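Justification of resources, computational component.

The compute hours requested in this renewal are based largely on the per-chain cost of generating structure records like the one below. Each record pairs the submitted sequence with a full C-alpha cell output. That output is archived, and it is also reused by downstream analysis tasks.
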Amino acid sequence: MTQSVLDANPRAAAGPGARAFDLTARGAFALHGAFVAALLVLSQLPLLDDRPVVQDSIVAAALLLLAGSVLLFGVARRGRTVTLELAPRRQHYLQACQQGVVLLVWGYYWREVYHAAPLIVAQILFAYGVDSLLSWARRGRFSLGFAPVPVIFSISLFLWFRDDWFYWQFVMVAFALAAKEFVRWERDGVRTHIFNPSAFALAVTALALVLTGASDMTWGSLVAESQFFPPYMYAVIFLASLPGQYLFGVTTMTMSAVVTTFAFSAVYHAVTGGFYFVDSHVPIAVFLGMHLLITDPSTSPRTELGRILYGVLYGLLVVVLYDLLLSANTPGFYDKLLPVPLLNLSVILLDRLARSPALKAIDPSALGRAWALRRRHLAYIAVWIVAFGGMSASGYLGDRHPGQWTPFWEEACGADVRDACLNLYFLHETNCADGSAWACNEVGILLAERYDNRVVAADAFERACTLGFNPACANARVVASGGELRRAPPTATDYRYILRGSKGPFGAPLDETDPAKLYARACDLGWPEGCAAAGIGRSTSPDVGG
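The structure output for this chain reads:
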C-alpha cells in the first residue's frame, strides 16, 4: 500500500495551537512543488510581458527552488520522512497586518506600490520555498505559518531593486532567511536567531550599495520620499503599530527612538536656525523604521530599560549616519537600515546593563511592578500617545513642517545657515525638472552667484527661457560676462509646482488652477509676492503647524 502524503496520526507540535504531521519525501516534494508552480504561473501574467528581466528573474527563482527540492528529496532524504508543522503564530500575522495597512495606504497615493504587488507575491512564494528547504534540510521540520510574509513586507517597505536588477531582490530574500537559519546564539537558555531577518538583509544590501556606489539600481530614494505623499501618514503608521505595541510591549523602544531623534532635531533647529532632516524633525521613512523595523520582539531587548536604551541608540545612530552618508555624497536614506544589525548584536549586553544595580534607579519596570503585563503596556502606550500628540501639534512632525517650502530656505540661505543654500538648490532643481520656469531661473542664479558655476547656470537659464520665463532669457545672455542677473516673482503656473512641498507626487503639479487661490495659498505659506498678487497685506513666513 502506498504511504499517505500526510500521516494519519498528527503529532502535537511544539507551539501552542500548532499541529505537526509526518510527510514522506514525495509528499514534501509535492508541497514544495506548489511554491515552484505558483512562481512559474505568476511569471506568465500578461502585466509582466513588458518586464522581461522581472519575468526571467521569477522563472530563475522557481528553477532554483525546484533544483533544491530535487536535491533534498531525491537524494538527501529519499525514502525518509520529514515534519510539517502548522503554526500560525500571532507575532507573524500581526506584523504582516500592520505592514499591510501601511503598504495599502502608501500605494493609494503612489501607485508604483500597487504595480509591485505581483513582485511582492513572487518574493513571498520564494521565501516560503527557501524557508521550507532550509528547515527540512537542517532540522527535518518546517513550520508553515506566516513567518515569511512580514519579512517580505518589511523589505518592500524600505528597498526595491529596479526591473533591470530585480533578480537581486530574490538574493536579498534568500540572504534574510539564511541568516535567520544559520546565524544563531544562546539567549536566555534558548537557541534563537540573532538578527531581524529583513533588517539584516536590508542592512547588508545597503552597505554593498554604498560601497559600490550602485544606489541607482534601486528605488530607494523614491521609496523613502513617496511615503510622505499620503495625508496624515505619521498618524497612519502610529495607529497601525499600536496593536503590536500592546501585545508585545515594544512601545518604549519606539517612543525612545522617535523622541531622541525629534529632540536632536529640535536642538539643532534652535542652535542653527536650519533643519537637520530638511522637511521633518523625524523623516517619514525613519519614523516607519522606528515602528515596524526595529520592533521585532525576537531580536530586541527583553527588559524595559534595555528597550529604552535600544531605541535611544537607534535614534542617535540614524542622526550620525545621515550626516556621514551625505558627507560621503551617498543617499541619506540608508540611515535607517544600517544600524539595526549592530543593535541586534547589542541586546544581551543592553539587557545585562538594564539589570545591573547601577541602573536600577532609572529602571521604569520598577513602576507598577504589581500591575499585569498588559496593563503596563497600556500605561506606556498612554504616555506615547501624549508624546506623539505633542510632537504633532508642534508642527514639526507631520504634513505642515516649514522645511517643505522654499521661503524658509530662502531666508535661511540668506542668513548663511548650515546647508541651507544646498537644500534650497535641491528644492529649486526638483521644481525646475518638473516644469517650473521660475525655479529654473532660481537654479541658475544660485549656481552663478553662490557656487560660481556659470556654465551649468547658463543651461538652467536656457531651460527657463524655453519655458517662457522672460528674465531667464536675459540672464542666459549675460551670465557668461558676469552681468547683473534678473529675478521675477513666480507665476500662477509656477505656484502649482512650488506650493506642493514634499507632499506632492513626483512631477505632477497641484490640481488647483485658479490663480487667485494659488496666490492666496502662496501668501499663506510665506511668499510676499503671492500676497501682493492676491491683494493680501501679509508677508510673514509660514506658520509652523498652521
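The CA atoms of residues 25 and 78 lie 6 Å apart. The longest helix spans residues 52-76.
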